[in-house]
Amino acid sequence: MEKGQTRSKRPAGPKMVRRLHAIYRARGIDGETKRQMLLELTDGRTDSTKGLTDREAVYLCGFLNGGAQGGRSAERDMLRKRRSGALRRMQRYGVDTTDWGRVDAFCLDPRIAGKRFYNLDAGELLDLIAKLERIIKRKEEA
Description:
- The chain is mainly α.
- The chain has 6 helices and no strands.
- Helix 1 (14-27) runs parallel beside helix 3 (54-64) and helix 4 runs parallel beside helix 6.
- The model has no long low-confidence stretch (mean pLDDT 86).
């Protein structure tokens, strides 16, 4: 590891990249699914296994292999990551994310999600993130 470079910033090594590709093949993960998974994991930074940091590659390897504590922990981590992504975008839009009442009021609008934030499942959170991205983009263009 280079001086001043932490594990979380260091790119994944070629051995780890090969290992992940072997896992993709073994699990039957196609290219589009892999790209979506990587975009989600890196919060849109990269859709390539070679673009992962060492920490992200280790996490993904554990996630694809069922995680050290089973798939539940990995699912919870993914849900937490999606919630965080949605909250960041709400904050960019102007919603006070420190007030759960405002977050819920925003999400309860049928044009947004029609549910309380905590009740959104992983798929609904992905839809919400995409919707918020479109809203923010329109707002910035205006």
